[in-house]
Protein backbone atom coordinates (compact mmCIF):
# COMPACT_ATOMS: atom_id res chain seq x y z
CA UNK A 1 0.00 0.00 0.00
CA UNK A 2 1.20 3.51 -0.75
CA UNK A 3 2.42 5.46 2.26
CA UNK A 4 0.32 8.46 1.19
CA UNK A 5 -2.31 9.40 -1.39
CA UNK A 6 -4.93 12.11 -1.86
CA UNK A 7 -8.46 11.64 -3.14
CA UNK A 8 -11.47 13.93 -3.24
CA UNK A 9 -14.69 13.64 -5.20
CA UNK A 10 -17.01 16.46 -4.29
CA UNK A 11 -19.42 16.34 -7.23
CA UNK A 12 -22.97 15.13 -6.70
CA UNK A 13 -24.06 12.89 -9.60
CA UNK A 14 -27.68 12.74 -10.78
CA UNK A 15 -28.00 9.99 -13.37
CA UNK A 16 -30.96 8.32 -15.00
CA UNK A 17 -34.33 8.83 -16.58
CA UNK A 18 -35.52 12.46 -16.38
CA UNK A 19 -32.35 13.45 -14.49
CA UNK A 20 -32.41 16.78 -16.34
CA UNK A 21 -35.62 17.68 -14.54
CA UNK A 22 -33.73 17.78 -11.21
CA UNK A 23 -31.85 20.92 -12.27
CA UNK A 24 -34.35 23.29 -10.65
CA UNK A 25 -34.13 21.47 -7.34
CA UNK A 26 -30.34 21.53 -7.46
CA UNK A 27 -30.24 25.25 -8.19
CA UNK A 28 -32.56 25.80 -5.22
CA UNK A 29 -30.27 23.75 -2.95
CA UNK A 30 -27.34 25.84 -4.15
CA UNK A 31 -29.19 29.07 -3.42
CA UNK A 32 -29.21 30.08 -7.08
CA UNK A 33 -31.89 31.15 -9.56
CA UNK A 34 -30.14 33.08 -12.35
CA UNK A 35 -27.53 30.92 -14.09
CA UNK A 36 -25.15 31.80 -16.89
CA UNK A 37 -25.66 29.03 -19.46
CA UNK A 38 -22.62 27.87 -21.47
CA UNK A 39 -23.42 25.59 -24.40
CA UNK A 40 -21.25 24.16 -27.17
CA UNK A 41 -22.19 24.97 -30.77
CA UNK A 42 -22.68 21.24 -31.36
CA UNK A 43 -25.11 20.93 -28.45
CA UNK A 44 -27.03 23.94 -29.75
CA UNK A 45 -27.33 22.44 -33.23
CA UNK A 46 -28.59 19.14 -31.82
CA UNK A 47 -31.32 20.82 -29.76
CA UNK A 48 -29.76 20.11 -26.38
CA UNK A 49 -29.67 23.78 -25.39
CA UNK A 50 -33.42 24.07 -25.84
CA UNK A 51 -34.00 21.02 -23.63
CA UNK A 52 -31.83 22.48 -20.87
CA UNK A 53 -33.47 25.92 -21.15
CA UNK A 54 -36.90 24.32 -20.83
CA UNK A 55 -35.80 22.30 -17.80
CA UNK A 56 -34.35 25.41 -16.16
CA UNK A 57 -37.51 27.44 -16.71
CA UNK A 58 -39.77 24.60 -15.57
CA UNK A 59 -37.52 24.12 -12.56
CA UNK A 60 -38.06 27.66 -11.32
CA UNK A 61 -35.06 29.60 -12.62
CA UNK A 62 -36.01 33.27 -12.54
CA UNK A 63 -33.90 34.06 -15.57
CA UNK A 64 -31.33 32.27 -17.71
CA UNK A 65 -28.50 34.28 -19.26
CA UNK A 66 -27.25 32.56 -22.42
CA UNK A 67 -23.49 32.96 -22.88
CA UNK A 68 -21.79 33.51 -26.22
CA UNK A 69 -21.12 30.31 -28.16
CA UNK A 70 -18.16 28.48 -26.63
CA UNK A 71 -15.13 28.40 -28.99
CA UNK A 72 -13.56 25.16 -30.21
CA UNK A 73 -10.60 25.48 -27.84
CA UNK A 74 -10.29 26.69 -24.25
CA UNK A 75 -9.66 30.41 -24.57
CA UNK A 76 -8.76 32.78 -21.76
CA UNK A 77 -10.24 35.77 -23.61
CA UNK A 78 -13.56 33.91 -23.77
CA UNK A 79 -13.32 33.26 -20.03
CA UNK A 80 -12.76 36.97 -19.39
CA UNK A 81 -15.72 37.98 -21.55
CA UNK A 82 -18.07 35.55 -19.81
CA UNK A 83 -16.80 36.62 -16.41
CA UNK A 84 -17.82 40.17 -17.34
CA UNK A 85 -21.18 38.94 -18.68
CA UNK A 86 -21.80 37.04 -15.42
CA UNK A 87 -21.09 40.13 -13.31
CA UNK A 88 -23.03 42.51 -15.59
CA UNK A 89 -26.14 40.32 -15.60
CA UNK A 90 -25.83 39.66 -11.84
CA UNK A 91 -25.86 35.89 -12.30
CA UNK A 92 -25.48 33.59 -9.31
CA UNK A 93 -24.42 30.29 -10.88
CA UNK A 94 -23.08 28.59 -14.02
CA UNK A 95 -24.62 25.75 -16.03
CA UNK A 96 -22.32 24.08 -18.60
CA UNK A 97 -23.65 21.82 -21.37
CA UNK A 98 -21.35 20.00 -23.79
CA UNK A 99 -18.00 18.26 -23.90
CA UNK A 100 -14.45 18.93 -22.72
CA UNK A 101 -14.06 22.48 -24.01
CA UNK A 102 -17.33 23.64 -22.47
CA UNK A 103 -16.47 22.07 -19.11
CA UNK A 104 -12.99 23.61 -19.07
CA UNK A 105 -14.38 26.97 -20.23
CA UNK A 106 -16.94 26.95 -17.41
CA UNK A 107 -14.18 26.17 -14.90
CA UNK A 108 -12.11 29.06 -16.27
CA UNK A 109 -15.06 31.45 -15.83
CA UNK A 110 -15.61 30.14 -12.30
CA UNK A 111 -11.90 30.48 -11.54
CA UNK A 112 -11.69 34.08 -12.74
CA UNK A 113 -14.85 35.02 -10.84
CA UNK A 114 -13.70 33.33 -7.66
CA UNK A 115 -10.23 34.83 -7.74
CA UNK A 116 -11.11 38.23 -9.17
CA UNK A 117 -8.20 37.96 -11.62
CA UNK A 118 -8.10 38.18 -15.42
CA UNK A 119 -4.95 36.06 -15.77
CA UNK A 120 -4.20 32.41 -14.98
CA UNK A 121 -0.53 32.82 -14.02
CA UNK A 122 -1.06 34.54 -10.62
CA UNK A 123 -3.67 31.92 -9.72
CA UNK A 124 -1.43 29.02 -10.77
CA UNK A 125 1.42 30.55 -8.77
CA UNK A 126 -0.77 30.67 -5.67
CA UNK A 127 -1.75 27.01 -6.21
CA UNK A 128 -5.14 27.67 -4.64
CA UNK A 129 -8.64 28.85 -5.34
CA UNK A 130 -10.20 31.14 -2.78
CA UNK A 131 -12.99 33.63 -2.37
CA UNK A 132 -16.74 33.17 -2.82
CA UNK A 133 -18.01 29.91 -4.23
CA UNK A 134 -19.68 29.92 -7.65
CA UNK A 135 -22.17 27.03 -8.05
CA UNK A 136 -21.46 25.06 -11.24
CA UNK A 137 -23.80 22.44 -12.70
CA UNK A 138 -22.26 20.29 -15.44
CA UNK A 139 -24.38 18.48 -18.03
CA UNK A 140 -22.25 16.34 -20.38
CA UNK A 141 -23.66 15.88 -23.87
CA UNK A 142 -20.73 13.72 -25.01
CA UNK A 143 -19.15 10.64 -23.42
CA UNK A 144 -15.44 11.14 -23.00
CA UNK A 145 -12.98 12.61 -20.61
CA UNK A 146 -15.16 12.96 -17.53
CA UNK A 147 -14.02 16.54 -17.03
CA UNK A 148 -17.53 17.31 -15.84
CA UNK A 149 -16.66 15.61 -12.53
CA UNK A 150 -13.02 16.47 -11.82
CA UNK A 151 -11.22 19.57 -10.64
CA UNK A 152 -8.45 20.21 -13.16
CA UNK A 153 -8.16 22.39 -16.24
CA UNK A 154 -5.56 23.04 -18.91
CA UNK A 155 -5.45 26.50 -20.41
CA UNK A 156 -2.64 26.83 -22.94
CA UNK A 157 0.58 26.03 -21.12
CA UNK A 158 -1.02 26.17 -17.68
CA UNK A 159 -2.32 23.19 -15.75
CA UNK A 160 -4.31 23.87 -12.61
CA UNK A 161 -5.92 21.45 -10.19
CA UNK A 162 -8.11 22.31 -7.23
CA UNK A 163 -11.03 20.66 -5.39
CA UNK A 164 -12.81 24.01 -5.67
CA UNK A 165 -13.00 23.55 -9.45
CA UNK A 166 -15.01 20.34 -9.15
CA UNK A 167 -18.58 21.09 -10.31
CA UNK A 168 -21.27 21.12 -7.64
CA UNK A 169 -23.58 18.76 -9.53
CA UNK A 170 -23.23 16.51 -12.59
CA UNK A 171 -26.46 15.67 -14.42
CA UNK A 172 -26.34 12.65 -16.74
CA UNK A 173 -29.51 12.30 -18.80
CA UNK A 174 -29.84 10.02 -21.81
CA UNK A 175 -32.06 12.60 -23.55
CA UNK A 176 -28.96 14.80 -23.69
CA UNK A 177 -26.24 12.22 -24.37
CA UNK A 178 -28.25 10.32 -27.01
CA UNK A 179 -28.15 13.30 -29.37
CA UNK A 180 -24.47 12.90 -30.30
CA UNK A 181 -23.56 11.50 -33.76
CA UNK A 182 -22.34 7.87 -33.97
CA UNK A 183 -18.70 8.69 -34.75
CA UNK A 184 -18.55 11.14 -31.86
CA UNK A 185 -20.01 8.62 -29.41
CA UNK A 186 -17.47 6.00 -30.57
CA UNK A 187 -14.49 8.36 -30.32
CA UNK A 188 -15.53 9.66 -26.91
CA UNK A 189 -16.14 6.07 -25.81
CA UNK A 190 -12.57 5.18 -26.74
CA UNK A 191 -11.44 8.22 -24.75
CA UNK A 192 -13.47 7.08 -21.74
CA UNK A 193 -12.06 3.54 -22.03
CA UNK A 194 -8.52 4.96 -22.03
CA UNK A 195 -9.34 7.08 -18.97
CA UNK A 196 -10.70 4.05 -17.13
CA UNK A 197 -7.89 1.67 -18.09
CA UNK A 198 -5.04 4.10 -17.39
CA UNK A 199 -6.78 5.34 -14.24
CA UNK A 200 -6.68 1.69 -13.17
CA UNK A 201 -3.13 0.94 -14.33
CA UNK A 202 -1.74 4.07 -12.69
CA UNK A 203 -3.34 3.28 -9.32
CA UNK A 204 -2.50 0.71 -6.69
CA UNK A 205 -4.75 -2.12 -5.49
CA UNK A 206 -5.59 -0.18 -2.34
CA UNK A 207 -6.29 3.19 -4.04
CA UNK A 208 -9.87 4.44 -3.90
CA UNK A 209 -9.56 5.68 -7.49
CA UNK A 210 -9.24 2.10 -8.65
CA UNK A 211 -12.82 1.44 -7.54
CA UNK A 212 -14.13 4.12 -9.92
CA UNK A 213 -11.93 2.81 -12.73
CA UNK A 214 -13.06 -0.78 -12.20
CA UNK A 215 -16.75 0.17 -12.36
CA UNK A 216 -16.16 2.31 -15.44
CA UNK A 217 -14.31 -0.46 -17.29
CA UNK A 218 -17.04 -2.98 -16.54
CA UNK A 219 -19.82 -0.62 -17.64
CA UNK A 220 -17.98 0.26 -20.85
CA UNK A 221 -17.22 -3.36 -21.71
CA UNK A 222 -20.90 -4.24 -21.34
CA UNK A 223 -22.53 -1.16 -22.88
CA UNK A 224 -20.25 0.93 -25.11
CA UNK A 225 -20.58 -1.15 -28.28
CA UNK A 226 -24.37 -1.27 -27.99
CA UNK A 227 -24.55 2.49 -27.35
CA UNK A 228 -22.61 3.14 -30.56
CA UNK A 229 -24.60 0.64 -32.63
CA UNK A 230 -27.99 1.76 -31.33
CA UNK A 231 -28.14 5.40 -30.29
CA UNK A 232 -31.80 4.98 -29.32
CA UNK A 233 -31.03 2.45 -26.58
CA UNK A 234 -31.53 4.62 -23.51
CA UNK A 235 -30.15 2.10 -21.02
CA UNK A 236 -26.81 1.51 -22.76
CA UNK A 237 -26.38 5.22 -23.55
CA UNK A 238 -27.01 6.11 -19.92
CA UNK A 239 -24.60 3.43 -18.68
CA UNK A 240 -21.90 4.58 -21.11
CA UNK A 241 -22.28 8.21 -20.05
CA UNK A 242 -22.07 7.26 -16.38
CA UNK A 243 -18.99 5.15 -17.09
CA UNK A 244 -17.31 8.13 -18.76
CA UNK A 245 -17.93 10.27 -15.69
CA UNK A 246 -16.60 7.59 -13.33
CA UNK A 247 -13.57 7.09 -15.60
CA UNK A 248 -12.93 10.83 -15.54
CA UNK A 249 -12.96 10.85 -11.75
CA UNK A 250 -10.46 7.97 -11.70
CA UNK A 251 -8.11 9.45 -14.28
CA UNK A 252 -8.42 12.95 -12.80
CA UNK A 253 -6.87 11.64 -9.60
CA UNK A 254 -4.02 9.92 -11.50
CA UNK A 255 -3.59 11.97 -14.70
CA UNK A 256 -0.77 9.94 -16.21
CA UNK A 257 -0.33 7.21 -18.79
CA UNK A 258 1.24 6.37 -22.13
CA UNK A 259 -2.07 6.34 -24.04
CA UNK A 260 -2.87 9.89 -22.97
CA UNK A 261 0.57 11.28 -23.71
CA UNK A 262 0.70 9.56 -27.10
CA UNK A 263 -2.86 10.56 -28.08
CA UNK A 264 -2.06 14.18 -27.20
CA UNK A 265 1.11 14.06 -29.32
CA UNK A 266 -0.73 12.52 -32.27
CA UNK A 267 -3.51 15.10 -32.13
CA UNK A 268 -1.16 18.05 -31.61
CA UNK A 269 1.03 17.22 -34.61
CA UNK A 270 -1.64 15.93 -36.99
CA UNK A 271 -4.55 18.18 -36.09
CA UNK A 272 -6.85 15.14 -35.88
CA UNK A 273 -9.47 14.99 -33.06
CA UNK A 274 -7.93 14.06 -29.72
CA UNK A 275 -10.82 11.73 -28.87
CA UNK A 276 -10.20 9.59 -31.96
CA UNK A 277 -6.49 9.24 -31.19
CA UNK A 278 -7.20 7.13 -28.10
CA UNK A 279 -8.45 4.32 -30.33
CA UNK A 280 -4.92 4.32 -31.78
CA UNK A 281 -2.84 4.88 -28.63
CA UNK A 282 -4.56 2.61 -26.09
CA UNK A 283 -3.34 -0.81 -27.29
CA UNK A 284 0.38 0.12 -27.53
CA UNK A 285 0.05 1.66 -24.05
CA UNK A 286 -1.43 -1.57 -22.71
CA UNK A 287 1.40 -3.60 -24.28
CA UNK A 288 3.91 -1.33 -22.55
CA UNK A 289 2.01 -1.73 -19.28
CA UNK A 290 2.19 -5.52 -19.66
CA UNK A 291 5.98 -5.25 -19.40
CA UNK A 292 5.90 -2.82 -16.49
CA UNK A 293 2.76 -3.80 -14.51
CA UNK A 294 1.73 -7.22 -15.72
CA UNK A 295 -0.32 -8.10 -12.63
CA UNK A 296 -2.59 -5.06 -13.13
CA UNK A 297 -3.01 -5.85 -16.83
CA UNK A 298 -4.00 -9.42 -15.99
CA UNK A 299 -6.74 -8.13 -13.67
CA UNK A 300 -8.01 -5.95 -16.50
CA UNK A 301 -9.09 -9.14 -18.25
CA UNK A 302 -11.47 -9.88 -15.39
CA UNK A 303 -13.02 -6.41 -15.78
CA UNK A 304 -13.19 -6.48 -19.58
CA UNK A 305 -14.36 -10.06 -20.11
CA UNK A 306 -16.07 -11.11 -16.88
CA UNK A 307 -15.46 -13.67 -14.15
CA UNK A 308 -16.20 -16.81 -16.18
CA UNK A 309 -13.75 -16.10 -19.00
CA UNK A 310 -11.14 -14.92 -16.51
CA UNK A 311 -11.46 -18.14 -14.47
CA UNK A 312 -11.24 -20.31 -17.59
CA UNK A 313 -8.03 -18.62 -18.80
CA UNK A 314 -4.56 -19.70 -17.58
CA UNK A 315 -2.85 -16.99 -15.55
CA UNK A 316 0.01 -16.79 -18.07
CA UNK A 317 -2.43 -15.79 -20.84
CA UNK A 318 -4.56 -13.25 -19.00
CA UNK A 319 -2.52 -10.15 -19.82
CA UNK A 320 -2.57 -10.89 -23.56
CA UNK A 321 -6.28 -11.68 -23.38
CA UNK A 322 -6.91 -8.31 -21.70
CA UNK A 323 -5.22 -6.52 -24.60
CA UNK A 324 -7.19 -8.63 -27.09
CA UNK A 325 -10.46 -7.81 -25.29
CA UNK A 326 -9.75 -4.08 -25.52
CA UNK A 327 -8.76 -4.51 -29.17
CA UNK A 328 -12.06 -6.26 -29.88
CA UNK A 329 -14.03 -3.35 -28.41
CA UNK A 330 -12.08 -0.76 -30.41
CA UNK A 331 -12.40 -2.79 -33.62
CA UNK A 332 -16.18 -2.97 -33.26
CA UNK A 333 -16.34 0.78 -32.63
CA UNK A 334 -14.28 1.34 -35.76
CA UNK A 335 -16.46 -0.93 -37.89
CA UNK A 336 -19.62 0.93 -36.92
CA UNK A 337 -18.32 4.51 -36.82
CA UNK A 338 -15.20 4.67 -39.00
CA UNK A 339 -12.84 5.93 -36.28
CA UNK A 340 -9.24 4.81 -36.96
CA UNK A 341 -7.55 2.19 -34.80
CA UNK A 342 -4.27 2.25 -36.76
CA UNK A 343 -2.09 5.16 -37.83
CA UNK A 344 -2.08 3.71 -41.36
CA UNK A 345 -5.81 4.48 -41.50
CA UNK A 346 -5.03 8.21 -41.20
CA UNK A 347 -2.96 10.70 -43.19
CA UNK A 348 -0.18 10.66 -40.57
CA UNK A 349 3.16 9.82 -42.22
CA UNK A 350 5.95 7.86 -40.53
CA UNK A 351 8.23 10.87 -41.10
CA UNK A 352 6.26 12.64 -38.36
CA UNK A 353 6.95 9.98 -35.72
CA UNK A 354 9.93 11.84 -34.26
CA UNK A 355 7.92 15.05 -33.92
CA UNK A 356 4.97 13.18 -32.40
CA UNK A 357 7.25 11.38 -29.95
CA UNK A 358 8.79 14.72 -28.89
CA UNK A 359 5.32 16.16 -28.30
CA UNK A 360 4.24 13.09 -26.32
CA UNK A 361 7.40 13.15 -24.19
CA UNK A 362 6.66 16.76 -23.30
CA UNK A 363 3.23 15.89 -21.87
CA UNK A 364 2.61 15.64 -18.14
CA UNK A 365 0.92 12.28 -18.72
CA UNK A 366 4.24 10.74 -19.81
CA UNK A 367 5.38 10.60 -16.16
CA UNK A 368 3.87 7.21 -15.35
CA UNK A 369 3.76 4.93 -12.30
CA UNK A 370 6.59 2.85 -13.79
CA UNK A 371 8.71 5.89 -14.64
CA UNK A 372 8.90 8.62 -17.30
CA UNK A 373 8.46 7.52 -20.93
CA UNK A 374 11.26 8.56 -23.31
CA UNK A 375 11.22 9.42 -27.00
CA UNK A 376 12.51 6.01 -28.08
CA UNK A 377 9.65 4.24 -26.28
CA UNK A 378 7.08 6.48 -27.91
CA UNK A 379 8.55 5.83 -31.36
CA UNK A 380 8.34 2.09 -30.66
CA UNK A 381 4.69 2.51 -29.66
CA UNK A 382 4.01 4.53 -32.82
CA UNK A 383 5.49 1.74 -34.96
CA UNK A 384 3.25 -0.77 -33.15
CA UNK A 385 0.24 1.45 -33.82
CA UNK A 386 1.00 1.90 -37.51
How does this structure look, described?
This protein is α/β, with parallel strands linked by helices. The protein folds into two domains: 12-177, Rossmann fold (3-Layer(aba) Sandwich), CATH 3.40.50.1970; 182-385, Dehydroquinate synthase-like, alpha domain, CATH 1.20.1090.10. Helices cover 55% and strands 10% of the residues. The chain is built from 17 helices and ten strands. It has helices at residues 23-29, 41-45, 48-58, 76-88, 100-115, 121-126, 174-177, 182-201, 209-229, 234-253, 258-270, 274-292, 294-305, 307-311, 318-337, 353-361, 375-385; strands at residues 12-15, 35-39, 65-66, 93-98, 136-140, 152-155, 158-161, 169-172, 367-368, 371-372. The strands form three sheets. Strands 1-8-5-4-2-3 form a six-stranded parallel sheet, sandwiched between helices. Strand 6 and strand 7 (158-161) form a beta hairpin. Helix 8 (182-201) runs parallel beside helix 10 (234-253) and helix 9 runs parallel beside helix 15 (318-337). The longest helix has 21 residues, at 209-229. It is globular and about 60 Å long. The mean pLDDT is 88.
